[in-house]
């Protein structure tokens, strides 16, 4: 009888504990590394879920500085937040110790946008960067077949951001290149690295100056794509650009009569942020969580104005 009472009390305590976990108002930190449309949209997705779930959401921007990232994570750890939802500047090395220390204190870690080289995050939500590049690569292959058929040499320039995030940038570049490399005549003549538009404009302009007969640009992210488009526009040349990411400005480029930006492949940042926050809340409630979620991308091409118009409604 005593044993039965003990078991019942234990079960009751467990039930109370689980109920408390379900009712608790959690505090979750959302950490991005730059101030662009993509990162703002991921935070919007997080906020939508946080508001729905009654979560106290704290946000920070590490401004592309790994030292600041470490400082921010350490601050949230000391504060005792319940979970950290984060995209990293150096997921293979320097980003690991601070979030590992947070995880060791019982803080749930959810990665988004890129994958930490460690197994302690409870979940990772991101796009497949190779498939993002391939989406724009397929559009470029169609363009080459239509506009450059029979041309002996097709010179391609690339603006990447491998100086900032090598694995992510390389995956996008490889995905793009894999779709066009076997087309006769295709040749990579120049590449430069810049994650932000202001710097990318100059680097793309330098490529145009060094290669006046350039046939095509590919850019691996939002800043690079904007920079390549504006550099081409400034040059007065008609060089087609294929990019990655979509926002209001990029939609404008796709609709512009200058015929420069031909296609771009977008992630779904609102969904990425929302799913990352949902998984953080599930983990805190001791509910099952998917270890890795790949969110599909979307390729918009100048040749499909109806799809561009539909997407434009989401970025007003």
Model description:
The structure is a single chain. This protein is 49% helix and 19% strand. With 316 residues, the chain is an alpha/beta fold. The chain folds into 2 domains: 25-127 and 269-285, Rossmann fold; 129-266 and 300-315, 3-Layer(aba) Sandwich (Rossmann fold). It has a 6-stranded parallel beta sheet with strand order 2-1-3-4-5-11, with helices on both faces. Helix 8 links the parallel strand 8 (216-219) and strand 9. The longest helix has 22 residues, at 2-23. The radius of gyration is 23 Å and the shape is elongated. The termini are far apart.
Quick overview of this protein structure:
With 316 residues, this protein is an alpha/beta fold. It is built from 11 helices and 12 strands.
Q: What is the overall silhouette?
A: elongated
Please give the number of β-strands.
12
| CATH architectural designation of the largest domain | 3-Layer(aba) Sandwich
The name CATH uses for the topology of the largest domain is Rossmann fold
Cα Rg: 23 Å
Q: Overall mean pLDDT score?
A: 93
What letter string, H or E per element, gives the SSE order?
HEHEHEHEEHEHEHEHEHEHEEH
CATH level-1 class of the largest domain = Alpha Beta
Q: Enumerate the spans where pLDDT stays under 50 for 5 or more consecutive residues.
A: 1-22
Largest sheet at a glance? 6 strands, parallel
Number of domains: 2
Name the CATH homologous superfamily of the largest domain. Answer: Response regulator
What is the terminal separation in angstroms? 67 Å
The number of helical elements comes to 11
How much helical structure, as a percent, in the residues? Answer: 40-55%
């Amino acid at each position: 009888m005593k044993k039965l009472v003990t078991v019942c009390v234990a079960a009751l305590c467990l039930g109370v504990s689980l109920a408390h976990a379900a009712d608790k108002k959690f505090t979750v930190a959302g950490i991005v590394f730059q101030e662009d449309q993509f990162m703002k949209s991921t935070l919007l997705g997080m906020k939508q879920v946080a508001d729905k779930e009654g979560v106290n959401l704290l946000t920070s921007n590490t401004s592309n500085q790994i030292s600041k990232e470490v400082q921010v994570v350490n601050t949230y750890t000391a504060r005792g937040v319940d979970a950290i939802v984060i995209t990293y500047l150096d997921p293979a090395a320097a980003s690991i110790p601070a979030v590992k220390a947070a995880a060791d204190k019982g803080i749930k870690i959810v990665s988004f946008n890129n994958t930490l080289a460690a197994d302690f995050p409870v979940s990772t939500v991101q796009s497949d960067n190779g498939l993002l590049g391939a989406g724009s690569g397929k559009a470029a292959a169609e363009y080459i077949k239509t506009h450059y058929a029979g041309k002996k040499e097709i010179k391609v320039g690339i603006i990447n951001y491998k100086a900032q995030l090598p694995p992510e940038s390389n995956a996008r570049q490889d995905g793009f290149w894999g779709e066009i490399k076997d087309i006769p005549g295709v040749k990579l003549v120049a590449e430069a690295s810049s994650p932000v538009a202001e710097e990318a404009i100059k680097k793309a302009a330098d490529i145009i100056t060094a290669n006046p007969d350039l046939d095509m640009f590919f850019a691996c992210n939002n800043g690079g794509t904007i920079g390549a488009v504006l550099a081409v526009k400034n040059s007065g040349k008609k060089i087609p650009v294929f990019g990655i990411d979509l926002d209001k400005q990029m939609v404008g480029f796709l609709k512009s009569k200058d015929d420069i930006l031909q296609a771009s492949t977008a992630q779904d940042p609102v969904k990425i942020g929302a799913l990352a926050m949902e998984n953080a809340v599930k983990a805190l409630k001791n509910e099952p969580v998917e270890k890795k979620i790949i969110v599909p991308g979307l390729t918009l091409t100048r040749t499909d104005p109806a799809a561009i118009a539909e997407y434009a409604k989401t970025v007003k």
